Amino acid sequence: MIKNIGIIGGTGNMGSSFKKVLEREGYSIIISDENTKEKENELLSKCEWIILTVPIDKSSEVIKSIKNKISKNQVFSDFTSVKSVITEDLKNCNFEIVSCHPLFGPLNVFKGQNIITIPFQKTEKYENIKKIFKNIGLNITELKSLEEHDKYMSLIQGMTHFSHVCFTTAMKKLGLDLDKVMEICSPIYLSNISFSSRITGGDENLYTNIIMDNPVNKDVINLYLNTTNELFKMIEEKNYNEFKENFVENRKYLKNHISKMITQSNFLVNKMAEFKSKRK
User: Fold this and answer.
1) So what's the pLDDT on residue 109?
2) What's the pLDDT score for residue 280?
3) Where are the alpha helices (DSSP H) in the chain?
4) pTM of the full structure
5) Which of 85, 75, 187 is nearest to 132 (CA)?
6) What distance lies between CA 89 and its chain's CA centroid?
7) Distance (Å, rounded) from C-alpha 168 to C-alpha 163?
8) Do 97 and 75 meet the contact criterion of CB atoms below 8 Å apart?
9) For residues 77 and 97, what is the distance between their CA atoms, to the nearest angstrom?
10) Which of 59, 85, 155, 196 is the most exposed place for a label (fewest CB within 10 A)?
11) Which pLDDT belongs to residue 21?
């Protein structure tokens, strides 16, 4: 039974968010960071569940430094957004591993947010971790492997973040009066700028590593760029029929989800309109 939880990187945004939420559930939390090695040793000796929440480019280094200090009675979870950077480090470990990925930023309340779990073994400890996540309001998606995780993230994070970076960069180069753009935009267009701004206003180190470090991203972003070239060629050649046919094929692809997605986007657009009206 997990009662004591150690968070390495617990003073960072994600680590401190989990600390607050888990403490409210009654768990004893010990945190450490790069300046408190004595606390790291304490949590490695006392805690049943060790969580790693450090920057992507530090994950491998930290795992190498602690893996021989974790016992077979403990369970280890990394919260790394890109799993390929730690795949080799998690081989031949003598402790249980449940790799995780919270698909949200630092929050005070986790209800309704999503988290990925990748259990190396399905044991009682894993069931305990799932119960903890459910009790703090998280929706769990279980994946089979670290490789499978990175394939899905190449779309959900890699291509998505890349497209937002491209959008903001192109908007900057266009050189229009940004205040006038914001004034003209109705909520549906403003929402796209808002999501791009959310990425731009975030941690540039995190988003750079998410885009650069996932090896699957190259192929997926290349597919994205090739697709934009194909569509642009239709525009250049004024190929109305082919462009419309692509719309229809996309609609067929999304058929099982499109109604729900439109309803959700309507909700967001209405909330954007409400927010905009309050700002006047």
Assistant:
1) 82
2) 63
3) 13-24, 37-46, 56-66, 124-135, 146-153, 160-174, 178-184, 187-200, 204-213, 217-236, 240-253, 258-279
4) 0.92
5) 75
6) 21
7) 9
8) yes
9) 6
10) 155
11) 95
Task: Report which residue type is found at 247.
Answer: F
Measure the CA–CA gap between 155 and 220, rounded to whole angstroms. Answer: 7
Q: What is the mean pLDDT of each run of 10 residues along the chain (280 residues)?
A: 95 94 96 92 97 96 96 97 97 96 88 97 95 97 98 97 97 97 92 94 94 97 98 98 98 97 94 81
Measured distance CA(79)–CA(15) in Å, rounded: 9
Tokens of 196: 């791009």
Q: Under a CB-based contact definition with an 8 Å cutoff, are residues 49 and 97 in contact?
A: no
Q: Which residue, 74, 18, 101, is CA-closest to 66?
A: 74
Q: Which two tokens stand for residue 64?
A: 């190498």
So what's the pLDDT on residue 184? 94
Cβ contact 51:45 at 8 Å: no
Residue with tokens 């768990």: 27
Could you write out the DSSP letters of every residue in 24-78?
A: HTT-EEEEE-TT-HHHHHHHHHH-SEEEE---HHHHHHHHHHHGGG--TTSEEEE
CB 190 within 8 A of CB 182: yes
Reading the block at residue 192, the tokens are 């796209």
